[in-house]
Write a structure and sequence with these properties.
single chain, WH_DNA-bd_sf, three-stranded antiparallel β-sheet, WH-like_DNA-bd_sf, HTH_HxlR, Arc Repressor Mutant, subunit A, extended, transcription regulation, mainly alpha, 7 helices, DNA-binding
């Protein structure tokens, strides 16, 4: 659907936008980090917990379950006593690695400009009184 100023119909929609659907899958900060933890193949839960700085057991469990539900992660149960569990990306999950790497690279190259723009914006929109306190 194209935008028409005469009919004022929207051409951008949360329910129909492919970007918003993808962001719904990967927008959680833990999701991206957990996917990166599985980038090199199977990984055990405890190792993933150690690798992903700051994630709690509860959040890791919720994240891998969500990714498993979305078809991006598969769980492998190893019949030991007690049973061990390994996680890995599915072929579908592996297709996310390249676009995520490109976003990571964009961040490495451009994030300092974002920080500078934020500082300039914040300075421009502070009151004169606040500027003198700085």
């Amino acid at each position: 659907m194209t935008y028409s100023s005469k009919t004022k119909q929207s051409d951008i929609s949360l329910s129909n936008c492919g970007y918003s659907k993808v962001l719904d899958i990967i927008s959680n900060k833990w999701t991206v980090l957990v996917i990166y933890a599985m980038e090199n193949g199977k990984i055990r839960y405890g190792e993933m917990l150690r690798r992903v700085e700051g994630i709690s057991k509860k959040m890791l469990t919720q994240t891998v379950r969500k990714l498993e539900r979305d078809g991006l992660v598969q769980r492998h149960i190893i019949p030991t006593v007690p049973p061990s569990v390994e996680y890995s990306l599915t072929p579908l999950g592996e297709t996310l690695l390249q676009p995520m790497k490109e976003l990571r690279q964009w961040g490495r190259v451009n994030y300092t400009q974002v920080v500078e723009a934020r500082a300039n914006y914040d300075f421009a929109y502070t009151t004169t009184e606040e500027k003198f306190r700085l």
